[in-house]
Amino acid sequence: MIRYTIGRVTSLFLSLVVASMVIFAVVEVVPGDPAAYMLGVNARPDTIAALRTELGLDMSAPERYLSWTSGMLRGDFGTSYTYRTPVTQMILDRIVVSLPLAILALGLTVLIAFPAGIYAASRRGKLGDMGVMGATQLGVAVPNFWFAMILVLIFAVKLRWVSAGGFPGWGHGILPGLKALILPAIALALPQAAILARVMRSSLLDMLGEDFIRTARAKGLTRRQALWRHAVRNALIPVLTIIGLQFSFLLAGGIVIEQIFFLPGLGRLIFQAISARDLIVVESVVMLLVALVIIVNFAVDLAYAAVDPRLRVRA
Amino acid sequence: MSLLSIQGLSLAIGSYDILHDVSLDVAPGEIVAVTGESGSGKSMTALATIGLLPAAARTTGRITLEGQDLLSLSEGQMCSLRGARIGMVFQEPMTALNPVRTIGDQVAETILQHEAVSRAEALDRARAMLNRVGLPEDRFPLSRYPHELSGGQRQRVVIAMAIALRPALLIADEPTTALDVTTQARILDLLKELTQDFGMGLMMITHDLAVVAGMADRIVVMQQGRVVETGPTMHLFQHMQHPYTRALFAASAHQVNLPPAPPAAPLLQVRDVVRSYPRPRRRLFGPRPVMHAVDGVSFTLHRGERLGLVGESGCGKSTLTRALLGLEPVQAGEILLDGAPVWAGNHPNLEVRRKMQVVFQDPYGSFNPRHRVRRLITEPFHLLADPPQGEARTARIAEALTAVGLNPADADRFIHEFSGGQRQRIAIARALINDPALIVFDEAVSALDVSVRAQCLDLLADLCRARPLSYLFISHDLSVVRTITDRVMVMQAGKIVEQGPTEQVFTDPQHPYTRALLAAAPTLPDIKKKTANAP
Are B52 and A220 a contacting pair at CB < 8 A? Predict the structure, then answer.
């Protein structure tokens, strides 16, 4: 287990280094001089040159890569070209919205998908199974922005339980913040839950056909006991893979939902930064997202090993 | 009084009748073998007894265990009997255990399921039971996982689970079929011992008459869902009444007459072949340890010779086969067919490959189910520069199918329309169609029922008489190798430890490993001698 963990940690750091290089290189080749863009078409060449020096754009690429990465390690992501504010602060403002939203949505996904998948698998071919499968079919098919608007109409406009959009910040306590995030989280979670429930069901059904389930039944376990004690844990491996992918998606892919609910999240920040050619912000946010995805995958790898002892010996 | 009594058991799934009026008894301390070929209903009888039939199965008749009618019990009542009064051991030890739970946990589960004891006490008793089945604590702590054990060791864990509560009846469904002969012998000994010590009844399902002969007190022979004959083991072997029993016995002991091999002229030459695989690193940047799957193997197969290769799983048989066929390069040594290397430079030598064909174990899995037989058996034509077309092609197809005892009209059928034995005939037709210099039979008859296996062996002998056929016959089944080969090689841990004329190796083995293999292999009783000595 220790060797496995060390292997995973090494791979985590190597991935981060490679990712930072790739992101830096890609942003380098994007056409357009940020300094010229910021000052407008009428700017004088010497003003542009001065700004380039100020922004550090006149340094060589390796130098800028090193100052960028070493800055990140200290928590300093540089200064936004357009807003002239520290990128770190901009990201912090956004991530307190995006990260809780993603975690909330993922929590809902798992809370819905596990019981639904397990219930459907245990009632295979019966009415309950068909009901759950029909519902997940619908969940996969319905676009989440449409579903989000329906949620707003019902819970915000009609029932007035929550506000239709915006985010009050965490300054007024946890409850108002959560209230603002709950509808977007549901809108994000439902299609993901539908996918995950289907994966859970099919993975469980595979396991229920395995020989060791028959062995468990021969020991005197009931069908239900065999399912819970022997099938569920084995079925988790493919499910964990999907959960890892879903978290990455929920973190950055929620831009449409952020737009509908007027949430100041990471998705909107990166969208605005790209439009304004604010490369330092783009670079930093992308790096942050990539880092989060790699860390999530690392967590999934550790979860695999926790679930399956066969993986602990292989590095 | 009998422990288990099955009376007039009939079973149907949908409109298919699986069992007809099956009756048999098992007494305490008695080993009853239920034998027959696939589809005879022996496994269904076992599953009916332990109440784990498919949901759609409908049963009539009576199954009484210790006076209790099992078929009238509710599912809940059956759950309290399973594991406690009836234990069951299955065929496939590799998959019968839950891979994510420790062996101690899984054995203790049987106890915890039925008795209100603490977890610690259940684990103590699991430990004792694992010791009893030959897995001592120092080498097999309770915290081991199934993947850390070999097939035979896993089967011991399954047995420990089944007998943890000392059930009155143990059902073993082909418990050793997936195991090597030496492992098989040890597991059979263990089962025999446990039956005596615990005084439990053992109902053993097996297709292998030789295993039955060495194990059982009584035999029940089944055919197509019926019991055709039953009696004490030796008595039944000596006075076989039913023609099916006699046919089964004859097929199990089947011998073929091979025509004499032509004078020795080297066809396949294998010299000092080494095939090794790197294993996972032990440390992060440490060197990767190497496993020698084939370690300095040399032999010559002569033209028209039938050469056998025996050895247990993991001995390197399959790796050697892949190297011979040019499917993988070797690290050292050379393999020449007719003087030409099977692997030239960095790619397989197609000139040589077209002269070799192979027949695998699984007659169904080795065919594309969406192609007709015509296309399946002409696959080797892809190797030819100028494959026959039109009339010539049809003639070759007809010739190949006729040679293996099928009809030329079968060319237009799909593979699922054939039985297992016919499928293996089609595989042989595919191997013959190019008229190859060498055919490799890789466990080619191992998955077949004994009667079908006997027919396939006869077919091979017939083919040898019709043309000079050179083949390498790889099998774990010593009795088959003995009759179908001229010369045999014994492989252990990547090395050929003994080779020589088949009869000589079997009657006078030199290497200790060969002796161990032969001693472990179950044998059929020699009926003629026994009857002659009978008073």
Answer: no
Question: What confidence score (pLDDT) does residue B458 get?
Answer: 92
Q: Model confidence over B256-272: pLDDT tens digits?
A: 888 888 888 899 999 99
- Are A218 and B84 in contact (CB < 8 Å)? no
Tally the domains of chain A. Answer: 2
Q: In this complex, is the C-beta atom of A220 within 8 Å of any C-beta atom belonging to chain B? A: yes
- What predicted TM-score, i.e. pTM, was given to this entire model? 0.83
Q: Are residues A98 and A69 in the same domain?
A: no
- Cβ atoms of residues A213 and A230 within 8 Å: yes
Residues, chain A = 315
Residue whose token pair is 């509808």: A183
The answer to whether residue B281 neighbours chain A at the CB level (below 8 Å) is yes
Contacts of B112 in chain A (CB under 8 A): none
Rg (CA), chain B: 26
Domain holding A136, by residue range, is 91-314
A82 domain-assigned: no
- In chain B the first and final C-alpha atoms are separated, in Å, by 31
The pairs formed by A85-88 with CB atoms below 8 angstroms and a separation of 24 or more are A87/A280, A87/A281, A87/A284
Q: What is the pLDDT of residue B283?
A: 66
Identify the H or E element spanning B301. Answer: strand B290-302
Q: What's the token pair of residue B431?
A: 């191997």
> In this predicted model, what pLDDT tens digit does every residue of B478-501 receive, in sequence order?
889 999 999 999 999 899 999 999
Tell me, what's the pLDDT at A231?
A: 94
B287 Cβ neighbours under 8 A, 6+ residues apart: B281
Shared domain check, A252 and A198? yes
Res B164: pLDDT: 93
Asked if residue A221 and residue A270 are part of one domain, the reply reads yes
Do residue A148 and residue A287 come from a single domain? yes
Examine the fold and report which residue of A10, A38, A73 is the final residue of a domain before the chain moves on. Answer: A73
pLDDT at B529: 45
- Tell me if A211 and B95 make a contact (CB, 8 A cut-off): yes
pLDDT score for B364: 73
pLDDT at B85: 94
B428-464: per-residue pLDDT in tens?
999 989 889 999 999 888 888 888 889 889 999 998 9
Q: Does B88 touch chain A (CB under 8 A)?
A: yes
Q: Please tell me if residue B241 touches chain A, with a CB cutoff of 8 Å.
A: no
Below-70 pLDDT ranges, chain A: 31-32, 253, 313-315
* C-alpha pair distances (Å), A257 with each of A159, A251, A296: 20, 11, 22
Q: Among A285, A261, A257, which residue's Cα sits nearest to residue A273?
A: A285
Return mean pLDDT, chain B. 89
Residues A164 and A16 in one domain: no
Judge if A158 and A10 occupy the same domain.
Answer: no
Report if residue A138 sits inside a domain: yes
Residue B531 CB neighbour total at 10 angstroms:
11
What residue of B is the nearest CA neighbor of A310? B147
Confidence (pLDDT) at B128: 93
Residues in chain B: 535
Alpha-carbon span B336 to B327, nearest angstrom:
14
- CATH code (residue A224): 1.10.3720.10
Q: Which of B113, B67, B396 has the alpha carbon at shortest distance from A218?
A: B113
Residues 6+ apart with CB under 8 A from A222: B75, B76, B79
Claim to verify: residue A181 and residue A102 sit in the same structural domain? yes
Q: Are residues A168 and A209 in the same domain?
A: yes
Which residues, 6+ apart, have CB-to-CB distance to B326 below 8 Å? B335, B342, B343, B348, B349, B352, B353, B356
pLDDT value at position A274?
84
In a domain, A260, yes or no: yes
Specify if A162 maps to a domain. Answer: yes
Last residue of a domain, one of A11, A40, A73: A73
Chain B hits for A212, CB-CB cut-off 8 Å, are 95-99
